[in-house]
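Pipeline run #58 for the internal structure catalog. This entry was flagged by the ingest filter as a single-chain record with no existing model, so it goes straight to prediction. Upstream metadata was stripped on purpose; only the residue string is passed forward. Reviewer on rotation: M.T. Logging verbosity set to normal.
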Amino acid sequence: MKICLLLFLVMLFSCGNNQVCVMKVGSQKVFVKDVLKLVSANHGIKKNGNVSREDVENFCRMIYARQLYYLEEARELGIADVDSVQEKILNEKKKALTKVQGPLYEKVVAGVKEPSGAELEDLYKKRLWVYQIQHILLPSKPLADSVFHLLKGGEKFADLVHRFSFDRRWGDEKGVWKDWFLYGTMGGDFDDTVLSLKPGVAAGPIHTRYGYHIIRVLHKKPREDSPFQKVVKWVRAVYFAMERTRAYFHYQNSLPQKYDFTFDPAAGRLIQSAYSEDAKGLPVLQKAVFTPEQMKMPIAKFRGGELLVRDFVDHYISQRPLLQPPLRRMDAIKEYAKKAAMVDLMYVDAVAMGLDQDPDFQNMARQYRNNILILQCRKVLFQPFEITDEEIRQRYDADSTFHIEKFKDAAKWVRRAIQTEKTNLEDKRQLKYLQDKYPIEFCDKGIKRLVKEINAKP
């Protein structure tokens, strides 16, 4: 009992010391534990047993001073209270918590078990064949069901591709994939469906993160591979990639129902009326056609949040044209709304699981918040500058390194060089302003503790 109490007191003393302040800029502080993490990662301070107080102070000044200056100025300016900044901070927090390989992802895929030898060998055999496939990619299940019904009724596959498919990535004008399909390429139900089909037979719709597919296998042929024992590690990696993809996709699909996702057709009609396609048939959805009031309308609601028209449009525009589904039909808009709201749905679920309380995540979220505040503070302090045509001409004439090109061709590079120089001067001006405004204070107790800790490490 005494030993346990002693250990507890030692741990408490150690934690308390690690919370000791090392340096301050206004109300911003750096603690012993923060510096020790960087020292452990070998960030720029020698650990030879002879680290002095001056070494520690210079190290802290080099690593932390600029960040603390901007954070203190941001605090004084009230930047964190601005609605748009708060929204950016929350969005970064959502991304951090829900990203692939993040806390939520790891929890979702934790149920994927280590495969047996028989499972690996079965996967290896499945990958000894490749398939030539033809598919129709559709934006919603109701449309996919209708198209599949037309196919069963005798319509030609290639005609349906031409009329309905929005695939601009894998297939040609008849929907035939440009590359032969190998089991494990898409992950999940798509691969299993391809494997189950005989040549000439169609199946669908199969849901993937790209949309709803109707698939037909045209041909299959054997594929050469190394003996199983030589590639077993690679087969194991493919197995985990497939099963994790399957688990994560099924998890995401469960969230709209779990959180009572509801779609507003009135807002959907706004999207539908604003949607168009260019001469090449590529989707066009522009912010400019919406009024500020329309952008603030919720297009979907769910327990714990909502998706605004603005969020829907931003998400759609951010996608590559190859992945933008057509939004002519209301069911396609509703389906895409679920996709656009997915990060918010996952965030609500992650918070419900308590994942936002994880210390590593909180530290990451704090770093994201600081980065946003620093960036916004730099923008507020920024003094605009101009670059005149005369400046560009003078620099071109004076700097022979630009003379490998004629002036009209080199002008953009000259402008960029001048802009870099002026931006650097502006950074120095800001830093000088902040240094004069906020003096650095070093805390004697924290510095002594750091010197002792660092010199005690091997």
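catalog note: Residues 1-16 have pLDDT under 50 and may be disordered.
catalog note: The first strand starts at residue 21 and ends at 25.
status: ready for reviewer M.T.
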